Input
Amino acid sequence: MELVADAPHQKHSETSVKSAQRVDFPRNQRLVLDAMIIFPGGLTDEQGCWKTGMTGDSYRPARIALSKLGLIQETGDKRPTKAKRMAAVHTLSMLGKLEAGR
Output
């Protein structure tokens, strides 16, 4: 399965388009997948940012793209964030586990 090549952006915004062109989006997706492999119990977005060293602005779009590809899914669990709010936990889907094993 091929990872999404383009970072999400607002097509009507020149600055958004230029910013998206500078992002190595497949690399970001790979970092998110690798984190999910290393932490099979799943990660919240905040935990994923800590584990990968990515900002939320980089981590979330990559995780969302992987979810749309069917590689990552929500577990149904919630964990508290640093701000004491509950956040969804994401983990590899069955397809994600198969792809990770390649």
